């Protein structure tokens, strides 16, 4: 049986786990190819215009899987920890895809909700394995291996790899060009945002490689331990509300509060509900600290040139902020907000 | 027994977001406990204030409520009230961000959050105790009972007005009476006076000259609670539909007295929700927060019953986007007009669309009769 996994949304967080699980059950896993213009266009044609970009991309991937798979795996993730819920779009994803992509092969849509108790969670896993094997033991074994692989995956990312790099290292058959990490980086930038935006090379216009080519050391949310992210969230907003907050507000607060990064760039999708409020909190925090912070909004019309111009301008400003103290910026700059970090404080882009 | 700390936390002017006129009925009641209530109606000014200080992509309710809060504070409110919840939708996060924005603007106030996990009778009574500056428990209970009676009176009246609007001969009579009645409900201080006032208004509503022959089209209004309830955001949709001779119906979950019925107390209308879940199940299996599930369920449930559905959704509302994506694909066919509400929505544009929609429904009905 061929199981299709769309290379979008939670793929970047859970793919090794999913793949190990299905392969452990004897299924063949088929991942859609990286996003193309055509995929995005076909996704856009099926959904209403207001839908956020990542879901449109996802829909394009599901469409590309419609032929050649026996079933498509689209889990409905309600929550991955107590009382912290996912964005509604993750919850309604299988239903939305079933309605808008009628030609799609059967959808495997387990409900992942830890709030309803362990029993339900385990049952969801067994139910998911049911079409592949009748033996619960086999499902259990596959799930356990999958969990171990997930841990390895997370450890690999902590060591400084981006999710696609980590995936590549774990499943080496999909060989792509190894990314040279620049000569020696001049800046360190904290790049925050959802993995499905940052690492989808079509959507983000190869943001990570481009930054590295510019001589920037990129620190991404996956390179921080969960516990630390969580602590940063608690510092800023008492307790997390959405499951996807770790990589945005957690990482943002963590990097802003630390001297090792020269600035923080956040990438959000147009129409992203959770981000619309979370970024606001983060921006205010950055303003209080006087740290350079920029928000890049991506949608299906974003042009690469515009994105690069903004990035270059941002890096220029960070560079000026890092200049030796002897050369002071023009008086008009320092008037716009004094802070300990010298001229960096006026760098505040929204 | 009031400790000093609590003394400091006394509420004198309480600001709450308005939802139509729903909270105006409590003004007199709280005044007896030395609290004045500010619920400024949403106007263009409110929205422009809200939009100026809100994040760009925040949804319309966020902006509306933030604007209302700013107006409340300008009118002297020292305490603000907001509901938070653990729900997948943005609504539960409002309070945190709004508080930060208001504090950054330099306002000083107390922020009361009512968390939905405090639901149930005890939680509500505790909240009332808080709002009445720590009144004694017997007073709290009687306040609660009166508040529930007022909500029920208001909703009964509104349901009646909904039925009269399309058939009344002189348009606007029922709404004039409704407006008067809100004042009367507010002034009532006991069950007896409330009952008496209500009886009077129901009689007067009865006497409004109506067109008995006319069978109005029925249109269900579904969507996100705040835009469905706040007449400023939906351009007085229900009244405008009434003028066109169309009867507007809403789901039970938009009538607040339904939440206070014994047994289902603040339990998000369990039975109603379960029923809608049943109807929505073939298309949307999961509760996606907000009113997404209700919108899909209501469309399926009312397909044979209503003539059309008007779906109101704030721009980029997450649950309603899901509902909007799914609704066209249900087997049960009924015309749906989706209107995305944001600060750019214009009255003329919206009414033109609604009129065109009503024309379509009329033709569809004639076609069905001929067939």
Number of strands of chain A: 11
Q: Considering DSSP H and I runs of 4 or more, what fraction of the residues of chain A is helical?
A: 40-55%
**Assigned CATH class of the largest domain in chain B:** Alpha Beta
Query: How would you state the average pLDDT of chain B, rounded?
Result: 85
| Chains forming the largest contact | A-B, 40 and 41 residues
The assigned CATH architecture of the largest domain in chain B is: 3-Layer(aba) Sandwich
Strand order of the largest sheet of chain B: 2-1-3-4
Order of helices and strands of chain A: EHEHHEEEHEEHHHEHHEHHEHEHH
Estimated structural class of chain A: alpha/beta
Q: What percent of residues of chain A are in strands?
A: 5-15%
Keywords:
heterodimer; A: 350 residues; alpha/beta; Rossmann fold; 2 domains; 4-stranded parallel sheet; 14 helices; 11 strands; 48% helix; disordered C terminus; B: 371 residues; 3 domains; 16 helices
Written account of the structure:
The complex is a heterodimer of chains A (350) and B (371). The C terminus of chain A is likely disordered. Chain A has 350 residues and is of the alpha/beta class. Chain A is globular, with a radius of gyration of 21 Å. Chain A folds into two domains: 166 residues, Rossmann fold (3-Layer(aba) Sandwich); 167 residues, Rossmann fold (3-Layer(aba) Sandwich). In chain A, the strands form three sheets. Chain A has a four-stranded parallel sheet with strand order 2-1-3-6, covered by helices on one side. In chain A, strands 9-8-10-11 form a four-stranded parallel sheet, sandwiched between helices. Chain A is 48% helix and 14% strand. In chain B, the strands form two sheets. A four-stranded parallel sheet of chain B has the order 2-1-3-4. A four-stranded parallel sheet of chain B has the order 6-5-7-8, sandwiched between helices. Chain B contains 16 helices and eight strands. Chain B has three domains: 108 residues, Rossmann fold (3-Layer(aba) Sandwich), CATH 3.40.50.11890; 74 residues; 156 residues, Rossmann fold, CATH 3.40.50. Chain B is α/β, with parallel strands linked by helices and 371 residues long. Chain B is globular and about 65 Å long. Helices cover 50% and strands 12% of the residues of chain B. In chain B, helix 2 links the parallel strand 1 and strand 2. Chains A and B meet through helix 4 and helix 12 of A and helix 5 and helix 15 of B.
